[in-house]
Amino acid sequence: MGKLVWTSIFIAALSAFFGERLINLRKRALASREVVNNHLPNCVLLKNIDHGSEDITILGNGLAFISTGIKYPGMPPSDAPGRILVVDMNDSRLKPVELRMPRNFDLDSFNPHGISVYIDPSDDSIYLFVISHPEHKSQVELFKFVEDDYSLVHLKTIKHELLYSLNDIVAVGVDSFYATNDHYYTSEFLKGVVEPFLYQPWSNAVYYSPEEVKVVSEGYYFANGINISPDKRYIYLADIFDHNVHVLERKEDNSLIPIKSVAIGTLGDNIEVDPETGDLWLGCHPNGWKLFMFDPNDPPGSEVIRIQNIHSDQPVVTQVYADDGHVIMGASVAAPYGGKLLIGTVFHKALCCDLK
User: Fold this and answer.
1) Smallest Cα–Cα separation from 158: which of 183, 128, 195, 186?
2) Which residues touch 68 (CB under 8 Å, ≥6 apart)?
3) What CA–CA distance (Å, rounded) separates 138 from 274?
4) Cα distance between residue 299 and residue 280, in whole Å
5) Would you list the DSSP string of 22-60?
6) H/E element, 286
7) Which of 268, 353, 284 is CA-nearest to residue 325?
8) What is the rounded CA–CA span in Å between residue 324 and residue 52?
9) How far is the C-alpha of 240 from the C-alpha of 331, rounded, in Å?
């Protein structure tokens, strides 16, 4: 056959490959799904949060920590600074207060993503772990929270070659944690274009301590939210593109053993765990295609999923809230407290509703 024929065959094969990959990606992103509104009563948008509330975690006393201002590839551009806010859920005003950062901390490059809080049982000190992406790299900033004046004391910056594409984090000690790497590559082009098309289970979870850093679980398409059970025996991990939440058992050496996975039928982002009931709450993207291909005229919706009795033979998966994007776009986290539900987003606002 001539050169022209071979070229035509190659182009046809390449087109077929990309076409199949695009169809597969749209399927994984639930691109054809339309959201039916399922609203909760008495919902109010929090004031002065307009550039995301990507992760939220609430202390037992009702103080909710919120990360805001993330710059992330594929999201609408923003010049809003990265900040950590606190909202007192016991105060009916629900007024976000920006935490005062230390003077020697580089705020210009602060790009906060997933967060976690650890309370030292020996003295009740509160440690805040924040994933940050300066210049789209990955590192963890460790702070000590001073409640008297709502300030943060910066303790250290944690970097490691195994912490290369961090998404979410759960602290298990004053300087130890589990975290997810949501991609395999570090190049923005490879992460944002090549990797989604190839769609391979290359992402993982890592354990970090000053003594040891290791990959403890792998084989995920997009490892996202991570959290821990109230008894500290299990780790929960959301694979956003596989529409599952995985249950992993902790071992004495901090390795993780897969136990089961629970299908949630949506793109699960961050996970919060009710300390009393053990229920899992997830902020979710009901149609990820609209999130990745953002169009303000056809906004990405939001969804909140609760998983009850996750360790039983028949976990109960319930849609608690859904919106088509006209109230709140791109839900990434949902945290319950005192009969209320605080819903955060990747790049939009934050919403607080009454639970039925």
Assistant:
1) 128
2) 49, 51, 52, 53, 54, 80, 82, 83, 84, 85, 112
3) 28
4) 26
5) HHHHHHHTTTT--PPPBPPSS-EEPTT--S---EEEE-T
6) none
7) 284
8) 17
9) 13
Work out the end-to-end distance of the chain between its first and last CA atoms, rounded to an integer number of angstroms: 70
Residue found under tokens 């409640």: 147
Specify the residue for token string 């609203």: 39
| Residues taking part in catalysis | 113
Q: How far is CA 150 from the centre of its chain?
A: 24
Residue whose entry in the numeric block shows the structure tokens 């992760």: 55
Quick: pLDDT tens for 132-171. 999 989 999 999 999 999 999 999 999 999 999 999 999 9
Residue 128 burial class via C-beta count within 10 angstroms: exposed 0-12, middle 13-18, buried 19 and up? buried
Rounded distance between C-alpha atoms, residue 124 and residue 295, angstroms: 45
Cβ 182 vs Cβ 218: under 8 Å: no
Quickly count: other Cβ atoms within 10 Å of residue 17's Cβ. 11
301-342: per-residue pLDDT in tens? Answer: 999 999 999 999 999 999 999 999 999 999 999 999 999 999
